[in-house]
Amino acid sequence: MLIVKASAKSEAGAKPSVEQLQAMGKFNEEMHAAGIMLAGDGLLASSRDSARVVFHASESQPPDVVLGPFPVQDLVAGYWVIKVKDFKEALDWVRRIPFDEEGSTVEIRRIAEFEDFGEIPESMKEDAAKMRKEIGERVKSD
Q1: What are the pLDDT digits (tens) for 76-135?
Q2: Which one, of 134, 38, 29, lies nearest residue 81 by Cα?
Q3: Using alpha carbons only, what angle is made at residue 37 by residues 135 and 34, rounded to the nearest 5 degrees?
Q4: Using one digit for the tens of pLDDT, what is the confidence trace for 57-70?
Q5: Which three-class secondary structure state does DSSP give residue 110?
Q6: Whole-number Å distance between alpha carbons of 46 and 48
Q7: Residue 55 CB: number of other CB atoms within 10 A?
Q8: Prior bond to 69 cis, omega within 30?
Q9: 8 touches 70 (CB < 8 A)
């Protein structure tokens, strides 16, 4: 997963120029053509319909809801989910992102798979695979 970190500019609600949108569209098309892009979106500023839900150890205590906006350093402004062969390939793609704002930051993180959690019952893997398939079908029909 490629996580685009928020900036003061993105949190202020600055909209990208037509040229920036075109450059990002071209980059997205290149990832799509390469068969690696699974998902990707930008997120609105945290001042727009955002909340943090903080859970407690005790089930008897309801979660706390904290409404945005939030400090910039804690935020994500967008993301891509890509499927590549290794970390180096992910890094190669990130280096090509057409950002023109000084300090733009993208965090590369590997999405956890069942194998990362040790021994998992086969029935749980089957249930998860079924749900992923149904989600994929729902996305295709939208």
Answers
A1: 999 999 999 999 999 999 999 999 989 999 999 999 988 899 999 999 999 999 999 999
A2: 38
A3: 135
A4: 998 999 999 999 99
A5: coil
A6: 5
A7: 10
A8: yes
A9: no
CA atoms within 13 A on the CB side of 127: 5
Give the pLDDT band (50/70/90) at residue 12: very high
Q: Domain segments of the chain: what residues?
A: 2-111
CB 91 within 8 A of CB 53: no
CA distance 60 to 21: 47
Nearest to 107 by CA among 133, 76, 71: 76
pLDDT tens digits for range 38-59: 999 999 999 999 999 999 999 8
Structural class in CATH, domain 2-111: alpha beta
25 contacts 37 by C-beta, under 8 angstroms: no
| pLDDT > 90? residue 139 | no
Its pTM surpasses 0.85:
yes
Contacts (Cβ under 8 Å, ≥6 apart) of 77: 4, 5, 6, 7, 10, 11, 42, 43
